Amino acid sequence: MSTGSRFIRGSIGRDNPLFSMSRVTIETAFYGNNVVPVFSPSEAYKLAKSSPGTIVTDLPVYRPEKTGLESDSKVLLFNDGAVTGRCASARRIIGEPGVSEAEYGAKIREAIYNTRKQKMYHAQAYIGLDRDFMVKAHLLVPETHENLIYNWLLNFQPINEFYNEMYESSERCENEGDIFVFSNPDWQHPDHPLGLSFFDPEHNCAAILGMRYFGEFKKGTLTLAWGCANRQGFAACHGGQKRYNLKDRKFVVGFFGLSGSGKSTLTHAKHGGKYDVTVLHDDAFVISSSDGSSVALEPSYFDKTSDYPLSSEDNRFLLSVQNVGATQDDEGRVVIVTEDLRNGNGRAIKSKLWSPNRVDKFAEPVDAIMWLMKDSSIPPVIKVKDPVLASAMGATLATKRTSAERLAPGVDPDALVIEPYANPFRTYPLSDDFNRYLGLFARRSIECYIFNTGHFGQTKVPKELTLRILESIVENRAEFVSWEPFQELEVMKIQGFQPDLSDEDYRKLVRDRLVDRLNFLRSREVERGGFDRVPQEAAESISSLIDRLK
Fold first, then answer.
1. CB 368, CB 473: distance < 8 Å
2. Which of 291, 93, 74 is closest to 206 using CA atoms?
3. Per-residue pLDDT for 375 more than 60?
4. Closest-CA residue to 392 (of 531, 544, 225)
5. Predicted pLDDT of residue 298
6. Averaged confidence pLDDT in the chain
7. What contacts 128, CB < 8 A, 6 or more positions away?
8. How far apart are alpha carbons 22 and 24 in whole angstroms?
9. How far apart, in whole angstroms, are the C-alpha atoms of residue 276 and residue 280?
10. Is 70 exceeded by the pLDDT of residue 404?
């Protein structure tokens, strides 16, 4: 599918559902005489290289021509100030209770007006890498913030001849317009001390104001693309997906978890070379409800740098780096200092070449979905046999906060939190995701597993154990036993990680965590005016488990 940005004159006006106050306000800014187009990554590289504060390291970009860069390109480093993470509390979404389009329309008009004396850069890219799902996106960024344009073009698919032909040959979706994102990182407003990320999801437009962390721009653009995917019959996926090309079959598995949950680790795990593995992506893709196929949304990888010291072989694939240190090596070359020494959540964009066996689409349907959680009541792995409960557990995915998030004052960073389907970037009702995943589990017979990648009780679940469990599932030799009194759940016998429900303390912990999930679902019935209310069967599936622990 493809989107549209050009219209027959007779269709331009109030009666066209693709237009709205927000859409018209934001798109209009892209046609000002202070706007300069940036067509390619190489052009954006030159701008970013000369942008105030950029550090041009002596680390060469590996095979730069594969990314649209010139042969002498170096890894660029740009650091933000105090803020090095996303801020969920700054999000405002049209359609949610209390969000007035008139109020925010006025603020955005003023923000656009105040950039009229600045040079603004306009970049375009595709979100989605196969003709089955492609959305054209536009970003507008003011001068002195050229690194945002550069990183955005590295993260998404820049427009080139190959992808242009693919886009033009895809089926036009008449009810979806291009994505337009206006930004001004220098914006300030007393009503929004943490900044403002405003979304009109039905009309594929956003304004990111007073925020300069690149993750806001990456996930802000994906937010709109995922909303578009939801309307067009796809499941929006914040996770990783890989395919095991076994001798007798192929096995496609998706990993869903927030930053720090292990989704990238599991997606890119090489298993010591035991398998022929193909990677789709480790962060953003969509699954077709009609045939179970999957499409990657991005060519590159936005990865943490904390686990990659300078000597790591993985750093060979760096394109740009954000919020890390710099120093000189013994030959006087400027290099990066990672491992989060400067601050938490150091980040890098790595090229598509990081995963040598990478494709943009899996035509094969998904075989298994793993919900990655950090919940001390959960053993290392649970198999969920009931489709309703499988989707309900995704809707109540439990984890811990990470350094990728900028929290509002008073929010406990150590509290257990529930983030449905590991996707905090939803702009549509939660019931859409519940029904979409329920359909995948029920109609497509996709297997569902819960992996605990945190602690079971006080014991950390080792990464090596998680990988061994995954391998046993892939090879179809995993042995699960019924977890009484739950007929819908099965567990694996693992020494040191036995979920003993005869232990009253543990039984209470499991029950308390299930009650937390049930309370979360019930809270959706009233919070935000019931915007995220899910079908009653979701709560009933969890309530049934609680009843058997009384």
1. yes
2. 93
3. yes
4. 544
5. 97
6. 94
7. 134, 135, 225, 286, 295, 296, 297
8. 6
9. 14
10. no
